[in-house]
Amino acid sequence: MKRVSTVTVRKRLVAVFLFGLLFFVIIDARLGYVQFITGDKLLEKADASWSRDIVFQPERGLILDSEGEVLAENVTAPSVVVVPRQVENPEQTAERLAEILQAPTEEVLESITKSAMSTSIRPEGIKISKEQEQAIRQLKLAGVYLAKDSKRHYPFGNRLAHVLGFTGIDNQGLMGLELYHEEKLKGEKGSLSYYSDAKGGRLDFFADSYTAPLDGLDLKTTINSKVQTIMERELDIAMATYQPDGAMAIAVDPSTGAVLGMTSRPTFHPEKYQEVDQEIFNRNLPIWSTFEPGSTFKIITLAAALEEELVDLEDDHYHDRGSIAVGGAKLRCWKAGGHGSQSYLEVVQNSCNPGFVNLGQKLGTEKLFSYIRNFGFGTKTGIDLQGEGNGILFKPEQIGPVELATTSFGQGVSVTPIQQVMAVSAAVNGGFLYEPFIADKWLDPKTGKVISDQEPKVKKRVISGETSKQVREALESVVAKGTGRPAYVDGYRVGGKTGTAQKVGPDGRYMTNNHIVSFIGFAPADDPQIVVLVAVDNPQGTVQFGGVVAAPIVGTILEDSLQAMDVSLRTDGLDKEYLWPEEPKVEVPDLIGMKKDELTELLTNLSVETSGKGTHIIDQSPPAGSLLEAGETVRVYLSDKK
User: Fold this and answer.
1) Which of 73, 222, 499, 541 could form a disulfide with 294 if both were Cys (CB 3.0 to 4.6 A apart)?
2) Judgement on whether residues 257 and 196 belong to the same structural domain of the protein
3) Which segments of 77-121 are extended strands (E)?
4) Do 186 and 173 share a domain, yes or no?
């Protein structure tokens, strides 16, 4: 028998030991790797395969006006949830659900036979109507459930539609404030997590995990619902009267940049946005549209010339011959033959193009365009809405004598309405250019406490307070004595400027008899608290002029808004200069205590309507001091007792 040496045995034992040691090292390393490196991932996978989550949707935050009135809220609208394993007759169930939900039967059948714990029928089974809910409940279909859900509701219909925007089928913001402030409005989902076996049976020996949903924050806006209602009403009237291609209106507080109201035509209902063309709800005209501003842009040229002390409105004069020659082009005044010799204040009142060309030439290209940019043109204002436009200015290398001249009176440049409103606000508020905003405060949905608020943001100061005062006075004279007279409001000091801009056609040429007419006004002129812009696109059946179409609309909006805002009447403003066939309004005298026989001598320009019997007047309507158009009616109440 062969004998194995001790050395050989020893070597074999060492080899076995080393092999065993290496084996255990590898096992330990693998265990360590699994435990410390991939353990968390594997645990997550195992947990995911065992656990089931029931998701709880948060309530979307409300959107409120400046006084707390609800503009956007949530209403109950259940959704259909199907548990496929519990459905007893899939074909019959699919047919009945399809009929109620008005969905293709094949698609419903495919949804309710999926290999899943639960499924939904999208989109027809999401946020169904009350009638559909009742019909499904009556059927008592096995495996078909109605889950609590909600949808967005806008109590005022199409009012403020472009600003509020709308939400999608899963309550996600798609347009307007709903989209811009989605992160704060949407909240965070909650869930109830439990463990189940492979067949879906609940494993009771594991504890459930519940995470409560976190509701979205409520948004309090700067919108003044009274002002908004007035603007909506006036645009509806304008659309019915002039049948234009479109119209828009904006109102802001010039001392803060807060948007008080904003509306566009055509409009839509946020809950029925699918029923209108996408171009309608995608285009919030006050911030999106760009067009040549026309004469409203002259306010910027005026402010720049006054700030540079290039002209004295009272003492300096300009002779208007009806046109001015610039760089081989003849630029005409709207008045054939011109205005003749006039002070520069009258140049402003008469909206004289050659006069403003002269002011632009005094400023020069560099200074005029520097002021234009400082007033915010050519860049977005930063308003908290999606889709804002930049506007279009001439590039420096493109500016020649003609471009300088036309820019001086608002032709050849394109601006957005929101840029115009903020620029004019800066011109009349003391010279401060603000960033416009709509989201004012964020509130806790349960307590109503303010979590954060928006402070007014001054971008820069563009002109001095003294220059701003001169601009206000000049624009007040435009309304009292110039082209803006239709915007005059008795009892309030109103300033403003008309605008009539030709539209450019597809061929790049100006269109004939197709203008955007506008008026931008502010009040009170001594302490502006509201600036309003109205623009009407291609009005029909009228002279297409801003003073004829847009100025009266702005005047009405200002008058009613100032009263709604409890702004005090003024008695120290400029009196309106009446032109034939206009007539001054008649002040109603105090008739109480007089005899009926004395009325014929007193009310020669007013009609009288009496109520009651007797010889003495005991009451009247409207009250003494009211201003009426000649021929309007005063009602008096008679009695035998004084």
Assistant:
1) 499
2) no
3) 79-82, 119-120
4) yes
Residue 592: domain span: 586-639
Pairs from 191-198 (Cβ < 8 Å, separation ≥ 24) = 191/53, 191/54, 191/55, 191/56, 192/53, 192/54, 192/56, 193/51, 193/52, 193/53, 193/54, 194/51, 194/52, 194/54, 195/50, 195/51, 195/52, 196/50, 196/51, 196/52, 197/50
Residues 413 and 455 in one domain: yes
d(CA 400, CA 414): 17
C-beta neighbour count of 142 within 10 angstroms: 12
Lowest mean pLDDT among 28-37, 311-320, 376-385, 400-409: 28-37
Whether the pLDDT of residue 366 is over 60: the answer is: yes
Distance, CA of 186 to CA of 216 (rounded, Å) = 5
Paired with 520 in beta bridges are 497, 533
Examine the domain organization and report whether 101 and 184 are in the same domain.
Answer: yes
Q: Count of domains in the chain?
A: 4
From 111, 225, 264, 295, the catalytic residue = 295
Query: How many residues appear in the chain?
Result: 642
Q: Is 341 a catalytic residue?
A: no
Confidence of residue 13 (pLDDT cuts 50, 70, 90): confident
pTM of the entire structure?
Answer: 0.80
Q: State which amino acid sits at residue 43.
A: L
- Residue located via tokens 């597809």: 506
Place of tokens 């005022």: 156
Dist. CA 448–CA 450, nearest whole Å: 7
